[in-house]
Fold this protein.
Amino acid sequence: MPSQTRSLSRVCWAVALCALATLLLELALTRIFSVVLFYHFAFMAISTALFGLGAGGVLAYKVEKDVGPGGDIWAKLGRLATMNGLLVVAALWVVLHRPLSFVISWENALVLATIYLACAFPFLLAGVVISLAISTTIRNVAKVYFSDLLGAAIGCLLLIPLLDFSGGPGAVMTAAAIYALSGAILHSMNGWNKRSAVSAMVFAGLAVAALVNPSLRLLDVKYAKGRSVAQEELALWNSFSRISVGPGQEGQSLILIDSDAGTDISTYDFDRLSDEDRRKLLSEGPSLPYIVKPAAKTLVIGAGGGMDLARSLASGSKDVSAVEINPIIVNEVMRGAYRETSHGLYLRPEIRVFIEDGRTFTRRSEEKYDVIQMTLVDSWASTAAGAFALAENHLYTTDAFRDYLEHLNDDGVIAVTRWEFQQPRESLRVVSVARAALASLGVADASRHVLVAREDSDQMAEWGAKDTILIRRNPFTQEQIDSLRAAAQANGMSEVYAPDQPGDNPFAQLLRTPDIDAFLASYPFDVSPVDDNRPFFFYTVPLPDLWSFILSPWNVDSKVNLGVLLLVASLGMSIVATLAILLLPRLLLGRQAPSGGLLWVHLAYFFAIGLGFILIEIALVQRIVFFLGQPTYALTVVIFSLLISSSLGSYFSQRFTGSDDRKTAMLLVGAAAAVGALIAAAPAAMDAALTQPLALKLLLIAALIFPAGFLMGMPFPTGLRRLEERFPNAVCWAWAINAAASVLGSVSAVFLGIHIGLTQTVVGGAVLYLAAALIVKLTTAAQTSAASQTQSVPLREPS
């Protein structure tokens, strides 16, 4: 028999590997869902994972009962972990081979249900393994839970290199192999044996498959957004997207981001540009700023396939800064495989290319520009933080537009092109944001600073027309307005808003009303200006109209707000899931289920800290995206920092608090205070370091998060020790409820962030830690009172 120390060490290793695989699987699936389904569904992958973990905690009671007293629990967990590796591969096959189209039908509902059920099972088994490992070693919960969090932190750290090297499918297959390795260690608790060898062989097979998959494509995307990807000429993954190239319209090649948002590759040869090609390039809405500023010094945000660069060059520009966030588009596509197709556009001397987030580049740049241009910059690529948690959200905030305005020359112009629909919302919100940004710079009347032109008006009822909004820090002159009007009319565009024309459409009303709040409150969509604290530009459904929107007929622009339906559905499902986890032990175990007068109050403690932790985590990820300029970096550094600091907090929790109620309450108050300090210190610190190198910014975020994370890691193991002393058979249930709270919190964080703001959501998480402290005080007072009453009962003399 192995020594007790060796046994605990192996349990810690197994739990760490299982947690590593679980977080890696969860985050990799969000990327695959964003590609194969639609970006909104990536959010539901998080909820599915957390629900599976919570339900696994409940199922653990059944597994433990089946093993029975004196049974080999570690052999059972070893089998489950090894089997999980194979289940992950099966789930991946289902996801990649079941096409789901953008149509509401029973067939698609069945496909979606199949995908989610297939993906839920691996998390269910992971929940069983981790919760039983913790409950079986409850006396050493600080070390085991430390291993759980440490493993998850390492899984988060591995996400970026694995996605860059092997893509989404390869990262999932790596998680499968790690599950099998965890199974081999669990099988070895009573010494290495045949079962250990089998698990090790499964691990080796899955590891080799993961290693060769990028080249052999054993498991790869077959369908995306309901369509076959067979026509793709090139497909490459990185940590935040899958870039593919295929045939587009009129013989052009089309770059697709996550198989959805497209950007045409420019095929114009600027060494031999014909007059007809020049006329064609300058006849579209995004070329309008060059009527005001020909041969402009230009900043293009979201350069993509180069069409905006081509328009700028066609107008005579000699100095163009092209900012593109995706290195695959720059290096592998435009400078690589499609260099000749684009006639070396990204290598031309007039163009300087920067691989960076446009917002960060603008803030960092010391230059000023004649034209700053963003044309249909949307990737539809989810960041895994939730529905509407898009990489480009921070490009469209009031704070961002203020940055753009401050980087214009005196006579410069911003040109933003967005889709528009029969009831204006996207371009109208751009105008709303522009008005707010101009007001912040002292412009009291923005009505002479904005002009809106529309092309493809006949497409309003199909996909949507394209509005180009021109914004200036100085008013448009009458000469400029006349020139723009003439150019728009000559090229078949319609005038939506001009400063010199009367009008009563929503654009004129928004820009000219003296009571902007009244207009925004009465408008049927939410087009209020968004800021960095509430950056959800693409969410336009007012809260009071949420239910009526969901029940409204499906139409062509529903894709934009599909996340509304999924957000509400996820919120409903998370509430049902939480109730199920609360009630299932009673249904499964009957009278053998944990019970007691204060049990529910103790379980509420785990619900509060689980909900608080996830609210803080998800809101911080979104809040820090702008600072780091890359959503995947924000996701990685926030989750890694929280998990690694929390794991250390767990490790030292026994030393600091033991199971002392007074110290536990003080710890929870301290955690809430540390979160408050983080909220107070972060804005000024990030603003001061915004232009610093990425490595320094990552270290700054980690340092800001560490104190709060350290204290937030202590309450869970401390609470388990308290619970084990009072209700020893309720430990797995507490794990399940903590996970259930995370399900509810993952949805609630996005919902609250949209409607009240991200900072306020973090504050809400801190308040829940205070609520947990109150629960500790209540349970302590109740137990003290009960003990006092017991001691005060007089003894009767025997008669």
